[in-house]
Structure formats: structure tokens, C-alpha cells
Design goal:
This protein folds into 2 domains: 150 residues, Metal-dependent hydrolases (TIM Barrel, Alpha-Beta Barrel); 126 residues, Alpha-Beta Barrel (TIM Barrel). It contains 11 helices and 8 strands. The strands form 2 sheets. Strands 1, 2, 3, 4 and 5 form a 5-stranded parallel sheet that branches. A 3-stranded parallel sheet has the order 6-7-8. Helix 9 crosses helix 10. The longest helix is centred in the first third of the chain and has 20 residues.
């Protein structure tokens, strides 16, 4: 298998790793026209949903904390259906009610410019905040109780989104690193970490080795935990989670080839004398607490 872009996760290994819930993401080609992006998203979203529904004994499409809690009791995996890149649905007001109910998270911006704003990809002399349409999209997602995910967004757009974001709902950053450990354009500043933590949100630390450290020799499991630890030091124990980005065209660090290697992260945490409460929070409880605030 090696450390490939893909093939990090499949459902047999999810069961073996006893992962009780995960985000199942639809990503749509940003270079298609707006109308084609939406139709492609709808096709892919329905296809994913139908695939998940094939195994009702072990998997359940999950939309709320109460559903997750019931699935956990029954030993089912909770599949949270999400979108990577809000430009997939620029005509979001025409989405069906069922799609909006199934959808738990939207990553507002992806790698390319959209009518909502710009990503964190470095570019000079461009407007980098959210557009008015982007701000209205944040408000729309809030109204539908859908997580606004601020991974990938420019720093200016990040704060624009928080300015209009409903303060009773936690914003999240699902997959990122932190600049306090690796000064990379894809990572969050300490100020951004604190801003998410102060709103009751969570930050998922991802496994893309290039965001963990600039030197190949340092790209190890230990560096993942360094980023988690730094996030805790800035925002507190309740603001961080695992945001692997498995199967998202990433190259994980040495020692992590698939979801079956997650216990190695726990071993690193135990070696650092972390408490059981802290480890459980990172492994999922922190996100579930945010989910409880969004959709009880």
C-alpha cells in the first residue's frame, strides 16, 4: 500500500479499527461551470448516500448527536455526509430539503477561487476576504444547522466568516496544521486557533506530511502529535480532534499508512503522559460535543 495519495481507508478497516464515526466527503471538480458542478455534486452525493445505505446493519447516515449516540449503542458506524468545497453548490437555495438534512458540513472554500471568496493558496495583489455572497452562504448554512468548515480559506476570509457566523453555533476547521509548529500557508495561526476554541469549535489536525514539517526527516507520527499538543496549549483540551484527510490526495508521515495505524498516535500520546480524558477528547469526544451544540 505504501504512503499513497489514496487507499488509506475502506469500511472493513474502519470496522477493524473500531472507528465509530467519520466524515464521508464529496469533492466536485472546481473547473467545471457552476451549473455542471451542482449537477455533478448532486449525482455524487446521491451515489455516496446509496452506497452507505447498502449496509444498514453496520453503517448509518448520521445527522445529529442523538443519532450518533444511538448508533454507538448499536455498534454502528456513523457516516456524516459532507462537502469539500462550497463552490459545488453555488446555487444552494435550490438544493432539496432532504439533501440539506443529510448534509452535515461544508468546507466553505477549497483550493480555487469561487464566488464566495479565495483560498489560502498564496497569491499577490488579490482581494482575499469573503464576498457578500460568501457571507450570505455562511448565514444560510447556519440557518440549516450545517457546520461551516474554515479549512482552506484565506486568513482574511476566515475572520469575515466568523464575523457573520451565528455565535450560538460552533465553527470548525476539519483538516489543517498549525503555524506554531510549521509555518505553512495551509496552516492556522495561534490567533485563528484561539478564535475557533473561543466559539466552542474544534480543529482537526491532518496527516499531510508537507503541512507537518518542512524537513522530510521530521515528518513522523510524533509531529502529528506536536501539532495536536500545540493546538491544546493555545485553545485548550476541548478544541482539537483528528482531521486526517485520509483518501484526500495526501501523503501521510512515516508510520501512518492507513486508518489501522491510529493506535500508533495513541501510543505517542501515552508516552507523553497525556490523561485519558485528553486522549478521548482528541479521538472524537471533542467533535461530538460540538455536534451536540449544532444538532442535539
Amino acid at each position: 500500500m505504501g504512503r499513497n495519495f489514496f487507499y488509506h481507508v475502506d469500511f472493513p478497516r474502519i470496522k477493524e479499527a473500531r472507528v465509530s464515526g467519520a466524515m464521508w466527503s464529496v469533492t466536485t471538480n472546481p473547473f467545471k461551470s457552476a451549473s455542471r458542478r451542482k449537477s455533478t455534486f448532486e449525482e455524487n452525493f446521491l451515489s455516496l448516500k446509496n452506497t452507505l445505505l447498502e449496509d444498514k446493519r453496520d453503517i448509518s447516515i448520521t445527522r445529529s448527536y442523538s443519532e450518533y449516540k444511538e448508533n454507538y449503542k448499536q455498534g454502528k458506524h456513523s457516516a456524516f455526509m459532507v462537502i469539500q468545497g462550497g463552490n459545488s453548490i453555488e446555487s444552494y437555495d435550490s438544493l432539496s430539503q432532504q439533501t440539506l438534512e443529510d448534509l452535515l458540513r461544508v468546507t466553505l472554500i477549497h483550493f480555487t477561487k469561487s464566488s464566495y471568496g479565495r483560498s489560502s493558496v498564496p497569491k499577490k495583489n488579490v482581494e482575499r476576504g469573503l464576498t457578500q455572497k460568501g457571507k450570505e452562504f455562511v448565514e444560510f448554512l447556519n440557518s440549516k444547522k450545517i457546520f461551516v468548515d474554515l479549512a482552506h480559506i484565506s486568513e482574511e476570509g476566515f475572520y469575515d466568516a466568523l464575523e457573520v457566523h451565528d455565535k450560538s453555533i460552533p465553527p470548525i476547521v476539519t483538516h489543517t496544521g498549525v503555524k506554531g509548529q510549521c509555518d505553512h500557508w495551509r496552516n492556522l495561526t495561534d490567533k485563528q486557533v484561539k478564535a475557533i476554541a473561543d466559539r466552542g469549535g474544534v480543529i482537526g489536525i491532518m496527516f499531510q506530511k508537507f503541512f507537518l514539517d518542512h524537513k522530510e526527516k521530521n515528518r513522523t507520527i510524533s509531529r502529528v502529535v506536536d501539532h495536536i499538543e500545540h493546538t491544546i496549549n493555545i485553545g485548550g483540551e476541548s478544541c482539537v480532534a483528528i482531521g486526517s484527510d485520509f483518501d484526500g490526495m495526501i501523503m501521510p508521515p512515516r508510520g501512518i499508512n492507513s486508518i489501522l495505524d491510529l493506535p500508533k498516535l495513541v501510543d505517542e500520546m501515552l508516552q507523553r503522559k497525556w490523561s485519558e480524558k485528553r486522549i478521548q477528547g482528541v479521538l472524537g469526544r471533542n467533535f461530538i460535543n460540538s455536534l451536540k451544540l449544532l444538532r442535539p
